[in-house]
Amino acid sequence: MSLAREINEKLDEIIEYHKQLDAVNNDFKDPDFTINDVHSGEKVTKEMVLNKATEIYDQIISDLNKLTNDGKNCIDIFSNQYYVNDMSEDRRIVEQERENKLKTEEAKQHGKNN
Q1: Dist CA 23 CA 45 (whole Å)
Q2: Which range has highest mean pLDDT (38-47, 65-74, 76-85)?
Q3: CB within 8 A of 71, min separation 6: which ones?
């Protein structure tokens, strides 16, 4: 797996983390909402959930820092024009470059014929 893809997966995990954290915060706004520990069956407080969420987030950030060597080995990795999360965008860029090369070659040929 490429470094860019691994970094992207960690960034996606961060986005998913924030979505789930928002959902949990919304759930806890309801005074009747409760969560039970899967293993013990005991009631879990909001603080316990948020502490566990913080641990998960810290682990994601730690993994991201390991992948990027604290940002040192990924300089300009996402500024490459081919790096886009959409394959159709990659195809569009390649097609645009092909058209530009074709126009350049056609211009050269027309210049020689004149």
Answers
A1: 15
A2: 38-47
A3: 65
